[in-house]
């Protein structure tokens, strides 16, 4: 009986100490004026806006398989089933190393392209004591075109098949129903089509 009471008292002591520690952690978020700094969440509902990147990153440890599908032009009519016959697909995998850093790889049917990317959110929109007006995320990708040359006599070097994309995204969640994003983008292709004679 005495042993059971000792175990019960030790258990209560651990609970009280744990509760006091948790309270101290909450109190550290509060400024002396009683104001709190909060990170603005869900600027957008996903990591992409249509086919382009958003400032959002996945939660740490999240592994996601992504299937993207883009139709051709609608004005080709029933012959091409209003763009369905010209559709491109991309199958990819993404892993969040942390809440702010995501790595991804993928393969697209367009020019049989393989790609890899790195996405890092380095600034967060915040309200409260430490107010900050926007979220900013950097994105860098490299893609390799593996489509065979239509001219068997012309060999395309590996370096000519590579292209790069860099984005620096700035977004602000204005209210519950409206967020805006600015995405300056630089795309570089090592080889581009040039008309003969130029």
| Pattern of helices and strands | HEEEEEEEEEEEE
What characterizes the major β-sheet? 8 strands, antiparallel
Percent of residues in helices: 10-25%
Distance between the termini: 97 Å
Report the average pLDDT across residues: 83
Number of helices: 1
Shape descriptor: elongated
Compute the number of strand runs: 12
Strand content: 35-45%
Radius of gyration, in Å, reads 26 Å
**Protein structure class:** mainly beta
Spans of at least 5 consecutive residues whose pLDDT stays below 50 are 15-23
Can you walk me through this structure?
By secondary structure, this protein is mainly beta. It has one helix spanning 2-27; strands spanning 38-39, 48-49, 52-53, 63-70, 88-96, 101-108, 113-123, 126-127, 135-145, 162-175, 178-182, 185-189. The strands form 3 sheets. Strands 4, 5, 6, 7, 9, 10, 11 and 12 form an 8-stranded antiparallel beta sheet that branches. The radius of gyration is 26 Å and the shape is elongated. The N and C termini lie far apart (97 Å).
Features:
single chain, 198 residues, 8-stranded antiparallel β-sheet, 1 helix, elongated
Question: Short summary of the structure?
Answer:
The protein is mostly beta strands.
Please outline the helices and strands:
Elements: H1 2-27, E1 38-39, E2 48-49, E3 52-53, E4 63-70, E5 88-96, E6 101-108, E7 113-123, E8 126-127, E9 135-145, E10 162-175, E11 178-182, E12 185-189
């Amino acid at each position: 009986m005495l042993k059971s009471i000792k175990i019960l008292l030790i258990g209560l002591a651990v609970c009280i100490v744990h509760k006091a520690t948790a309270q101290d952690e909450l109190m550290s978020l509060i400024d002396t004026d009683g104001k709190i700094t909060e990170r603005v969440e869900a600027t957008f509902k996903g990591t992409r806006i249509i086919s382009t990147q958003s400032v959002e990153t996945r939660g740490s440890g999240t592994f996601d398989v992504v299937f993207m599908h883009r139709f051709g032009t609608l004005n080709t009519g029933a012959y091409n089933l209003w763009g369905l016959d010209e559709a491109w697909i991309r199958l990819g995998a993404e892993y969040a190393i942390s809440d702010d850093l995501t790595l991804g790889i993928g393969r697209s049917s367009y020019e049989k392209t393989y790609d890899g990317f790195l996405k890092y959110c380095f600034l967060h929109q915040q309200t409260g004591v430490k107010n900050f007006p926007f979220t900013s995320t950097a994105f860098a990708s490299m893609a390799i075109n593996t489509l065979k040359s239509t001219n068997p006599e012309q060999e395309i070097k590996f370096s000519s098949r590579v292209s790069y994309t860099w984005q620096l995204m700035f977004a602000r969640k204005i209210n519950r129903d409206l967020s805006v994003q600015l995405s300056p983008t630089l795309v570089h292709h090592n080889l581009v089509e040039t008309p003969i004679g130029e």
